[in-house]
Amino acid sequence: MKIVFYGSGNMASAIFRGMLDNKIVSPEEIYLTSKDNKERVEALHDELNVNYSYDDEELCRDTDYLVLASKPQNFPDVADRIRPYLEPKTKIVSIMAGTQIKTISRELKLDNPVARIMPNTNAQVQHSVNGITYSSNFTAKDELIEIMESFGKAVEIEEIEMHAITAATGSGSAFLYYIYEKYAECVMELGFTEEQAMFLTRNLVIGTGKMISDSDESFSELRRKITSKQGTTEAGLLALDETNIKENLMATLQAAHDRSEELAKE
Questions:
Q1: Among 54, 109, 169, 230, which one has the highest count of C-beta atoms within 10 angstroms of its own C-beta?
Q2: CATH number reported for the structural domain that contains residue 134 in this entry
Q3: Exposed (0-12), middle (13-18) or buried (19+): which is 107, by Cβ within 10 Å?
Q4: Is 2 annotated as a binding residue?
Q5: C-alpha span between 246 and 122 (Å, rounded)
Q6: Domains: count for the chain
Q7: Each residue of 223-242: pLDDT tens digit?
Q8: Residue 225 marked ligand-binding
Q9: Is 256 a known ligand-binding residue?
Q10: CATH number at residue 245
Q11: pLDDT in tens, 124-155
């Protein structure tokens, strides 16, 4: 198998690192390119022993999957470069936020099968949540899902739902990191040092994640189990509710959703 990544940013590298760590492909089967960041591409080659090239004809030759991982605004230039060399067997996989399948096909001026996926950087630890949708002529769904499950869980959706999953899980890790960051800052205000606050918060998050992973119970049930009537946890939760936490989180997700829609129109 030959899988070519046009772009080597954080999301792309999370994906191919997950694939390599899970041994779904070998380094010899991965090809990287990025004319805007040659230093990073070559550093990844040195670290992972993957291939790299800046020759579009070589990159497109006998390629099974070509992953579009460039910035959406750079895609027209990428399309112009690869159009003369794309072979009919090559399946296009896009991780470009907001760029629709019809836009990809229109820019390429070709009928290659196209899939859009929305992963997140948890692919680095094989725990990405990957929304996926396909063009009508994409027939290798099972193969692609098998590849994707090397770095997380695949959820098949309609393309119209891509904006929602981009907000909920594509950007979700960053939202949660920000919450953890602010939690640690508040722990410091209780009197702990920065080092202590980071240690306490990091291990709290890891332990809570383990509880979720090992339990079939809902979040609300897990919360109720550790919330004693008129206890410290209940007092804190009541204060948290007064901050309109649900409304604030909804505003966060809606802003990401709306930006995804805007990108689709640009």
A1: 169
A2: 3.40.50.720
A3: middle
A4: no
A5: 24
A6: 2
A7: 999 999 999 999 999 999 99
A8: no
A9: no
A10: 1.10.3730.10
A11: 888 999 999 999 999 999 999 988 888 899 99
